[in-house]
Amino acid sequence: MKIILASDHAGLELRQALVGLLQEKGVSFQDVGPTTSESVDYPDFAKKVARAVAAGEYTLGVLVCGTGIGMSIVANKYRGIRAALCSTEFEARMAREHNDANILCLGQRVLGAGVAKGILEAFLATPFAGGKHARRVQMIREAESER
Ligand code: RB5
């Protein structure tokens, strides 16, 4: 498993906390910034992660902004991306199990670091269930082709 993470300035500290968790767990990852708290535009960072996950370079992505909303909107514009904005471990499990979500979006202004770490752990630990859910994910792909 190989993870790619990014944030904007409003998600920097939470992203760094999540990097610490991945290091503790020995999960392979690439952190693509930003490295300072200077104001940046979240679409630039969502684009980096969405393109890399869509290209198959990483198993899963993580995007953090103030709310997680902007990141999720941008990431979901990319073909093959199923980005899930989660604020509970239950949502994270369902996003993987039912939706085969491949990017987790989190809001630093919404969640404490402890809760967010639990959400990320649930996201990484939960496999896609397949079966009827695979049919539905295929229907998402078909919807993409109508764009
Ligand atoms: C930045 O102020 C903020 O707009 C951004 O982090 C995010 O919450 C957007 O959805």
What does the average pLDDT come to? 98
Order of strands in the sheet with most strands? 2-1-3-5-4
Helix content: 40-55%
Q: Outline the low-pLDDT stretches.
A: none
Largest sheet: 5 strands, parallel
String of helices and strands: EHEHEHEHEHH
Structural class category: alpha/beta
Radius of gyration: 14 Å
Oligomer: single chain
Strand content: 15-25%
- The shape, in one word, is globular
Terminus-to-terminus distance: 31 Å
Identify the bound ligands. Answer: D-ribose
How are the secondary structure elements laid out?
Elements: E1 2-7, H1 12-25, E2 28-31, H2 42-54, E3 60-65, H3 69-75, E4 83-85, H4 89-97, E5 103-107, H5 113-125, H6 132-144
Parallel strand pairs: 1-2, 1-3, 3-5, 4-5
This protein binds D-ribose.
What do you see in this structure?
This protein is α/β, with parallel strands linked by helices and 147 residues long. It has helices at residues 12-25, 42-54, 69-75, 89-97, 113-125, 132-144; strands spanning 2-7, 28-31, 60-65, 83-85, 103-107. It has 6 helices and 5 strands; from the N terminus they run βαβαβαβαβαα. It has a 5-stranded parallel beta sheet with strand order 2-1-3-5-4, sandwiched between helices. Helix 4 (89-97) links the parallel strand 4 (83-85) and strand 5. Helix 2 (42-54) packs across helix 3 (69-75). The longest helix has 14 residues, at 12-25. The N and C termini lie far apart (31 Å). The mean pLDDT is 98. The site of D-ribose has 8 residues, from helix 3. D-ribose is lined by residues 8, 10, 42, 65-67, 69-70.
